[in-house]
Write a structure and sequence with these properties.
alpha+beta
């Protein structure tokens, strides 16, 4: 067997988990894809010198983490509009201009984050570690603190292994972990307990949401939201707090006529999601955006709409849609 074939045979089963790690570090699907490629390129070049003093998995995580840390030296943190300031005062007023130059957080499709495990607890833990609110909060941590938190609390690596991976001391790892945990308690909002799959009631809620959106039924939409729900739509910097404000925004700017949108169910960041298609005139509905929903009980507590048609490609969704 050639060196190339041997490397591929032993490393390919780590690709998905390395993508998830790079995504948590970077907050971007596109960055994660590029950095996983860079990780495997560097690993392939160095494979002949790999001595097996650590597991191949740990060795690959060492490369991936350092690739991410190097990339973060030249990138600003990725944000959601809720991280920029206070909510928009008047949902019916003209919207602030989009800010495409801001490095916005991107949603990640579950099909790229998937974990191969028969243990439901493992699946739940993996989904919880990719939640949109958690990934958004991670972006506020200094890069090395971010890496320590992920390696220790998500990947459950021993402190000594993390110290060796990052080229630092165990004491420094413990100190960074303590600071990161403290900051995450303030940054990451409490959410409903993550489950292995949607309940029938949750699926019914999503079906009602899709139907209300497609029919421009703002009254039903109002009934589906929590009182303190939040809506945001990068690259628009504005965001809205409270279900009345959200519904007023949708009624004024989005749901202006039935049939304008089609929603295709999907999943992102371990949460329910939809690919949105919009029709501006007679003809097919064209790719428009990806919406990720956060559920709280039998209601929706957050609508995160990412207004970038290019994001539908990683979800495996087509550029046009004839119907749901």
């Amino acid at each position: 067997m050639t060196r190339e074939a041997d490397f591929e045979s032993v490393s390919d089963n780590h690709r998905t988990e390395l993508f998830a790690h790079c995504y948590r570090m970077m907050g971007s699907v596109h960055d994660a894809e590029d950095l996983v490629q860079e990780t495997f390129l560097r690993a392939w070049r160095s494979y002949g010198t790999f001595e097996g003093r650590s597991s191949l998995r740990t060795w690959l995580y060492r490369i991936a983490t350092n690739v991410c840390l190097s990339a973060l030296e030249h990138r600003d943190r990725r944000l959601l509009p809720t991280g920029l300031g206070t909510e928009y005062a008047d949902p019916a007023s003209p919207l602030a201009a989009a800010l495409p130059e801001v490095p916005w957080l991107e949603p990640a499709p579950d099909l790229l984050l998937g974990v191969a495990a028969d243990d439901p607890a493992t699946v739940v833990a993996h989904r919880a570690s990719c939640r949109l609110a958690l990934v958004a909060a991670l972006q506020w941590l200094p890069p090395r603190q971010r890496a320590v938190l992920l390696l220790r609390d998500v990947l459950a690596m021993p402190a000594g292994e993390v110290a060796d991976l990052l080229g630092t001391s165990v004491a420094a790892v413990k100190s960074a972990l303590q600071r990161a945990r403290s900051q995450m308690e303030q940054l990451a909002p409490a959410e409903d307990k993550v489950t292995e799959c949607l309940t029938p009631d949750q699926q019914h809620l999503l079906d009602r949401y899709a139907k209300a959106f497609e029919n421009a039924d703002v009254q039903t939409l109002l009934e589906l939201l929590t009182q303190d729900a939040v809506a945001e739509m990068p690259p628009l910097p504005c965001w809205f707090a409270g279900r009345d404000a959200i519904v007023r925004f949708f009624a004024t700017h989005v749901l202006t006529a039935p049939g304008r949108f089609r929603l295709v169910p999907s999943a992102a960041n371990g949460q329910p999601a939809f690919g949105l298609y919009r029709r501006d005139a007679d003809g097919p509905h064209h790719a428009h955006s990806v919406t990720v929903l956060t559920l709280a009980g039998h209601r929706i507590s957050r609508i995160s709409g990412f207004l970038d048609a290019g994001l539908l490609r990683p979800f495996g969704l087509p550029p046009t849609c004839g119907g749901r």
